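Working notes for the structural subgroup meeting. M.R. asked for a predicted model of this chain before we commit to crystallization trials. I am recording the input and output together here so anyone reviewing the notebook later can reproduce the run.

Input as submitted:
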Amino acid sequence: MIQMSTLRKRVAIGNLIIGSGFPVRVESMLKTPITDVEACRKEIDSLAEEGCELLRVAFPNINCLPYLRDILQFSKVPIMADIHFDFKLALAALETGCMAIRINPGNMPKEGLVDIVNLARERKAVIRIGSNSGSLSNVQIRQSYGNKAKALFLAVKEQLQMLEDMGFEDIILSCKSTSITETVNANLLLSKHFPKYPLHIGITEAGVMPDGLVKSAAGMALLLTQGLGDTMRISLSAPAVEEVKAGYALLRSLGLRKKGVEIISCPTCGRKHLDVAKIVEDISPLLKGLPDGLIVAVMGCEVNGPREAKEADVGIAGTPNGIVIFKKGKVVEQIDRDDFSIEKVSAIIRELL
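Returned structure, recorded in token form:
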């Protein structure tokens, strides 16, 4: 088991606690413009069902305030308003009920920070200071002599010190780049110099699947295995629910979260008697509602069936005549090919658990 840091403070976004002693939180970002309220409602509902724990929402201009207010009223997921350029947008988001805001030190002017902090303190809201490689200022890059990881760190450091000077510490820190190396090095600097604050981690602009998923997992695993990361987003050019699914899958693979059912399956070879990929696709939605942490195996043949997947709580494996169903490596039922159906297998699996 990877040991997460126990030094970081805790911050509360409504009822959501982030920091020491709590699991790494999985978040995403609303991909629907907030002006389309009904589409936002559908997207938020689907994210809530998938287990999204925090949702960042772009708040680009003051004309969007009524829509943000509507979203705050019906959202089942805590909302963090994403603010750029204009400190008055941060004030408006806080005044309308946002319990968290993200400000970007690469484009947020110093003016207005006092007002933001005072209102956040009054509303017991959290501020995420989130630097991003795409919005670093020329000054920040010059100060770091072109070292973008250091520039990301310095951008957060400057704004953090201003907030600390005002006595405000309900803060989450974040440094993101599209480069794994830059992201990891920037977060190592944050952890070294400001170990008490929770970290939000992610690889920005990772891309489409599968490349973006691989890139995100590679970079974030390097941080998570070092105990760094209190909240995370896998950023993909894909529906937001895919980001949430991928987040939990990554945390399950590292032994950090057990949410949902884990399906393990063989890569298949010439011995296969099952269309493994198709069965995984078909059976996955039928396993919803089973206890978190269960492992279900789908194996192509009797060679890498019960034996190789004996750690699974339950599984199925192909045979020349059909399939076998096994529990903890022991075969408990056989089904002829003509009698096979996904619904029947799902029902048997539920009975065995």
